[in-house]
Records
---
Amino acid sequence: MIAPSAHPAPQAAPTQQSLPTVRFATPADDRFIEELQALAFGPGRFARTAFRIRERFPIDKSLSLIGEIDGRPVASVWMTPISVGGMDGYLLGPLTTDPAYRGRGAGKLLVKEVCARALARGEGSFVLLVGDEPYYAPLGFAPTTPGAIQFPGPVDPKRVLLHSADRTLALRLSGAIAAFGARKRV
Ligand SMILES: CC(C)(COP(=O)(O)OP(=O)(O)OC[C@H]1O[C@@H](n2cnc3c(N)ncnc32)[C@H](O)[C@@H]1OP(=O)(O)O)[C@@H](O)C(=O)NCCC(=O)NCCS
């Protein structure tokens, strides 16, 4: 179990499993998130392609969400504003849940919430991620055209998934990952 940085322990053990809730992350969550990601992805995480994107393009801290169970932080998700082929959107990840709290819905709740909040802004048209289709398909993610979206490093094309109100976009979107708003600045 990950020790939360500045959050109180629950007062009493719940008699039945409580549902997860969501809140915005604050700077007090930074250590918890760092420890969670280190546990999930290990020291090799900085070499992963998705981490490389986040080095080039900063995450949107106003879309950094924490999943809680019984008032304890147990899961985290980040969003990175990006563009692909001149269209603005977001890269979701990492999504991580404390192993002691997996299978209780925190991960899926965070995906649903962060996608809804990001797309409701009306500034980005899609959410892209690299992940397992069986997990993300029920959350509205569809496979993209293999090789159409170019990442700054190796990715398994079958794991490049996209969520958009436009159901045709997953197969149409193509181009290299660039900064959010890149086309407007040209
Ligand atoms: C993937 C992860 C975030 C899921 O978190 P979670 O809070 O347990 O997710 P939920 O409780 O919402 O969903 C759990 C369900 O998804 C299933 N599931 C978990 N990972 C899965 C995967 N890779 N593929 C398919 N199904 C998966 C579980 O078996 C479980 O199924 P059930 O509801 O039928 O029992 C968590 O396992 C984790 O942190 N993994 C390590 C980091 C990672 O791989 N992140 C995703 C890529 S960025």
---
Amino acid sequence: MERPADAGSAVTRLPSPDMFASQLAADDDPTARTQEQPMPATDSLELDEARLGEFVHRFITDLGAAHHAVTVVVGDRLGLYRALAGTGPATAAEVADAARCDERYTTEWLNAQAASGYCEFDPATGRYHLTPEQIACLADENSPVFLTAGMLLAASLFKDEERLTEAIRSGAGVGWGEHHHDLYVGVERFFRAGYAANLVSSWVPALDGVEEKLRAGALVADVGCGHGASTILLAQAYPNSTIVGFDNHAPSIDAARAAARTAGVADRARFEVASAQDFPGEEYALVCVFDALHDMGDPVGAARHIRASIAGDGTWLLVEPMAGDSVAANLNPIGRLFYSASTLVCTPAARSQPGGWALGAQATDAQLRGVAERGGFTRFRRAVDTPVNRIIEIRP
Ligand SMILES: C[S@@+](CC[C@H](N)C(=O)[O-])C[C@H]1O[C@@H](n2cnc3c(N)ncnc32)[C@H](O)[C@@H]1O
């Protein structure tokens, strides 16, 4: 099995069996677990009042956002945002009626939205409403900026918190399939908006010669396809092509097949349970990997297999989260989101697989290029960017 010896500091190794053994020994001794690092007590520190106030303010804002996140998930599930979008300026009773929810709870929910800037409240009339921008982000699942499902993704991680805490302590992996079901649904609904807005209109046209091939009819693989949002969009846009989605998470493949049937593209969007390192087929004109390479324990094995499966003039479309070339460059709201998701989903997923890699969701271009080159590819180009994604063209 290949070991990633020289791929940079973001590449980590799985702990050796010896490391697990010493960890197990520590587990047998409760005092070993509770031993704490010495740290200075607060009353021995010189606190800057202004900086303390700023940090407390920041934390309270985040604490409010964390609590509010659950109300977003609840509002999404109950159709409260859609009801409010439909009613226009409305009293709490009218919104509750439209959503068929309890009035008292709905009043409290609306006040939580208003305090968070997620709806508007007019004290003169006692009515609540959504602005057009709030409707686009919160209520309209087909909008290119539909964001609500992102909170479902975040909330799912609270449901996995105990297992993740243990994994971070021990170094063990948590496989994609070991998470709460809401993660899979949240990822599909959250990512689909970006794919619908960009994949066919911008990303495919940015690849050299690919759009023409897909229009004429070509064989495409979508590796790590999850619930198949990207696979289905490609099948809808290029009816002469055959798009095959692969994922090693069987329940996701079941969901993708059902979605393709609902979308009426099951004749040209097929799905199979297979890993990136051994999916079947050859002479693919295009192999896509959307937000999945950094989740793999063996991305080089995936790159090598893609190289072997792709046509001589084929293209590998790699979509990865936006990131800069250093940790310092990622210390911003996008990096915050992706480093957090990477800690709780991507790194544990990679750790659960053989291969010894854990690129993380903020892998640099140089690291991704290194993976592609080890797989046998020679050309690597950032074809286009969005604020949250790098769209990379990789060719033999
Ligand atoms: C973050 S999700 C992205 C799903 C989908 N591409 C999307 O953008 O909505 C990562 C996906 O990669 C899949 N995956 C991870 N490692 C894999 C591997 N070695 N082979 C195949 N699929 C893998 C997971 O099962 C999961 O469905």
---
Amino acid sequence: MKIIATATLAFALLIAAPPVLAEGDEVVIESAWSRASIGTSRPGVAYMALINTGDAPVVVSGLRTDLAAMPMIHASTTDAQGVTRMSHMEEVEIAPGETVALEPGGLHVMLMDLQRPMVEGESFTLSLILAGGEEIAAEVPILGIASRGPAD
Ligand SMILES: [Cu+2]
């Protein structure tokens, strides 16, 4: 009986400890997808949902993939004249419990300087780099060149 009580206490202390090294585990990447490219002369694009399951804000400060030399997060905005512009987001903050959607017409991953063509049916690994230095990797499937999402 005494042994069980001790073990329970130890477990309670373990789960109560601050998640110093586990911060990256609090961001979940869901529904990632991308489109096939024609060659490598134009940048590729990828979309996904970034979910902060933790109770503190998380800042995404960069991306890494061997598919592209300069992966970055862009925001698309359309002005009153209907002209769409893309701006580079240095950081994207995800509030606790919130989801940031990277989707066509809004935030997206721009894969600048493709190192190889993006081939439909293949996939690639993309890592989010958090402000604290942690990396969270996701496998991103490559859909057809005209795809509008996994539901197509
Ligand atoms: Cu872009």
---
Amino acid sequence: MVNRGTDNGPFRYPLPRPAGPAGQYAPPMELSGTAAIISGGASGLGEAAARALAAAGSAVVIADLNEDRGKAVAAEISGEFVKTDVSDEDAVAAAVDAAAKGAPLRAVVNCAGIGWAERTVNRKGRRTAWRRSARCSTST
Ligand SMILES: NC(=O)c1ccc[n+]([C@@H]2O[C@H](COP(=O)([O-])OP(=O)(O)OC[C@H]3O[C@@H](n4cnc5c(N)ncnc54)[C@H](O)[C@@H]3O)[C@@H](O)[C@H]2O)c1
């Protein structure tokens, strides 16, 4: 694997390009000097996105409910943590302001979520997990 960028654990940038005819793929975006906001960036898919964007040169704001984990990840990638509930419009606005204050905000990745594999409707036809999950997911 070619790695001309920052070594950031398992996340390397630029990402390896699949083989193909020259010119088939767009060149990687230049992200140095830009800002990114990642909802749900304290864990899982969001954490991976946060690490990849930081490795690519973005100033990353992690917007998440999980303060301990969010601060730890932000410290590792020289980013910023802003405690955010994505179902709260004011909290999201504050996170966006924090992300945009130092550099142009060019990337937003929405990974905050609480869905998992389970019944969404019970045997009586009543919704179970659906409302809780939808409240979070529809706000991201
Ligand atoms: N991992 C998968 O394979 C997969 C597949 C399909 C869909 N998804 C969905 O993608 C989303 C992310 O998945 P993941 O595996 O990274 O989950 P994860 O649990 O590892 O991370 C989710 C993050 O979202 C945060 N979060 C939850 N509610 C929040 C809220 N209201 N405001 C702000 N942050 C909040 C959590 O604190 C956590 O850090 C989930 O909704 C999940 O259901 C995941």
